[in-house]
Amino acid sequence: MSIPVPALDQRARWSIRIVDAVTGEALTEHEPDAVCETASIGKVFLLIEIARRVDDGRLRADQRVDIPAEHVVADSGLLYRMLDQRLTVHDAALLVGAVSDNLATNALISLCGLDEVRAVAVELGYHDTSLHDYIRNERTSEMPWTPSFGTARELSDLMRRLGAGEIISAAVSEQVLVWLAANTDTSMLADAFLLDPLAHPDAEYQGMLLRHKTGSTSFARIDIGWLQGPAATVAYAVAANWKDRREDLRAPVIDAMRAIGEGIRAHVTGRARDAGDR
């Protein structure tokens, strides 16, 4: 069974792939190997490295994380607004999973080392997907071209493997999924799943269980995830970029993402899209 893709605004660069999380069979794809800038999506690789180091004892979950002055950044997240910014490793990672916290991200990258975090994607067998740089308040031509990049083929595979417990180990995969379970951004594909944005660690509406990560910039929207329902489980990645366009395409892009999400919801729940159960 395939999942329908709506008409896509061709002014944007798209990369889409949805797979059955059990068999790996492709259910839908569109330019799955197109490399897109993926904003905050690469933070998943950081969470993998943090989870691995906690698991093998190189880091303690309760140790405090210092924030180097050269990597102070604002925008996405909550930590930059907090009075006490010396969080534990676990809580900093939780902020990354919950609100894609930029300041916590930079502190954790610094703790591990940027080269070490970049190497995670390569170790996992990905060649066109990675966390590439710290988060910056301003990105100049002297800096790496993007904080992260990726393809839908590799990102959907990453989420499938996380859901299967195959990333590093079952314990590491599970810890990453626990952090991602706190994600409060359900503005893209996940909007169609109708889950409580602030509380969906357990299966709720129509029996769906979601683990996902999103990324946003002024020219990009990306949603990657693992969604389990009573009828099926899928892993998905949908990315759209419009960097060189004069117009802001977020409205048609998000409309298309929500439509794709409706198709995913129908597939994993086994309910017809017109069943009147919204």
UniProtKB/TrEMBL annotation:
Keyword terms of this UniProt record: Hydrolase
Gene3D superfamilies (alphabetical): DD-peptidase/beta-lactamase superfamily
Pfam families in the record: Beta-lactamase2
Top-rank taxon: Bacteria
Enzyme class: hydrolase
MF terms in GO: beta-lactamase activity
Protein name per its UniProtKB record: Beta-lactamase class A
Location of the Beta-lactamase class A catalytic domain: 17-239
EC number, as in UniProt: 3.5.2.6
